[in-house]
Amino acid sequence: MEIENRVIWNKNFGYIIMGQTLSVLANSVMKFALSLYILDLTKSAALFGTLLAVSIIPTIILSPIGGVLADNFNKKNMMVIMDGLYACIAILVYLAVVSRANIAVVAMCLLLMSVVSAFETPIVQSSMPLLFKEDNLLKANSVVNQIQLFANFVGPILAGFLYSLVKIEWIFIICFILFFGAACIECFIKIPILIVKFENGAIATVIKDLKESWMFIRKEEPAIIKIIILLGAISFFISGLLFVGIPYIIRIVLGLNSQYLGINQGLISLAGIGGAIMVGVFSKKLNMKNSYLIVGLSSLLVLLMGVIFMINMPDTVTFVLFTLTIMLLQALFTLFSIFVVSNIQANTPVQLVGKVMSYVTTLSLCAQPLSQAVYGLLFDIFSNSVYILFLFTGFVMLLVSYFSKNSFENFNQ
Q: pTM surpassing 0.70?
């Protein structure tokens, strides 16, 4: 199978898009429903944040291994297996909720989802360079991100309404059907297979591949390390602030129901689609040297959110302004993420893409567990003055943007 040179839309890419749509939609619905379920059970931002933090640890630990598997095994088969495992987890969650299992069992299901995610993400990321040449790679990544964000747009809204209309266990049955459908569609995908010989056994090959990809980052693209550190800093200050903050603020601080949270999450994903579209619009104007400005502009939006919560307004007005500001923030972060990831992919040999991207994912996510635990505690402490957290985070992010300028200037395009 030849790499696509001129067009990105074809039957094969269509199968990838359909499979990703169903898989991401099911993932979005299930995680959102579980988040609501946990928050309603605990009523605590600290415990909620701690559970989110713990659930992401497997992704951080296992992503490098996932990258090795993505580069060394049949990517189509791996996609099918991952969605099959997601379907099994949906059944486990269903049984846990029906049996009224304690919060530890639900947390275990979140951990299992994190394990599968560690292997799934590098597979999708490493497939694109095998299907498209550099000219179309950015466009293909943009399309995949738009579809994923569209699924994330529909998912929370659907989950929010279902959560208030039907028993929660039925939501997980729907997720099982979607995951199973994704696995069936992915059986028809055709992705070039890189022939890999396990000369000294699979374990020795894993270790060798991880060393090889790390040496590539250190010696040939050392700027990637600086970018990873930057992504880690952004992850620390933003993930806890938003992942823990949004549900807590809407459900507990503002006292609004699950439908408001579903609308908020859906609109945020819709804004992400806008950010993905912006990639195509600004692709010729954007370059790595000026991309730090996106981080700076994002910092100003975080400061604006602090101002919104300083002003005494009706809860629904605060919700609208808060949501609109986050939508702009999401659009910028999506633009930034696609652009940075595409540049790293384009500068990495195809046989190393999965492993290099898994390093990027792993190291940049390392800050998330601590962030979610810390911000969970801080939201409990500053529940009556959440604007302090937004103002503090906004100012810190401005400093991060300023000091990151040199990192982007030294990256080869």
A: no
